[in-house]
Amino acid sequence: QVQLRESGGGSVQSGGSLRLSCEVSGISSTRFGMGWLRQAPGKGREGVASIDYDGRTNYADSVKGRFTVSRDNAKNTLILQMNSLKPEDTAMYYCAARPSYSRGTLNPSQYNYWGQGTQVTVSS
Fold it and tell me: Going by DSSP bridges, is the β-strand pair 10-13/118-123 parallel, antiparallel, or unpaired?
């Protein structure tokens, strides 16, 4: 049974930081590409950050320089460190997995497995 479980969301003031975690089971995060995607109120789902099986990363322009994605292969855990948060970062954040040959994609349609999401709210 494939399972992705996010944690670490919450409410924070503009300029603050949050660290999101995703526990992965049923698949190996070293064999799949992983990603963080989000959906803001009234918006479609968009890719935020991806990390490939070899550790290569890709980021949406809106979060470059502020967010960092990483993986702990031993624990099969995906991390998103979010710094300098802005109100426009407010969204439901999802952990997702995709085939490793979809290198660096931020396209939600390329992801096969999804967590339930964790809410991030940034106030001004």
Answer: parallel
Three-class secondary structure of residue 104 per DSSP? coil
**Is 8 buried (19+), middle (13-18) or exposed (0-12) by CB count in 10 A?**
middle
Which amino acid is present at 120?
V
Q: Which of 20-34, 53-67, 79-93 has the lowest mean pLDDT?
A: 20-34
The label of the residue with tokens 């070899």 reads 54
- Can you tell me the distance from the alpha carbon of 17 to that of 120, in angstroms, rounded to the nearest whole number? 11
> What three-state secondary structure class fits 122?
strand
Decide if 67 contacts 81 (C-beta within 8 A): yes
| pLDDT level of residue 51 (50, 70, 90 thresholds) | very high
Amino acid identity, position 54: D
Q: Indicate whether 54 pLDDT > 90.
A: no
- pLDDT of residue 43 exceeding 90: yes
- Token duo for residue 74: 């031993």
Beta bridge partners of residue 7, listed in sequence order = 21
CB 115 within 8 A of CB 24: no
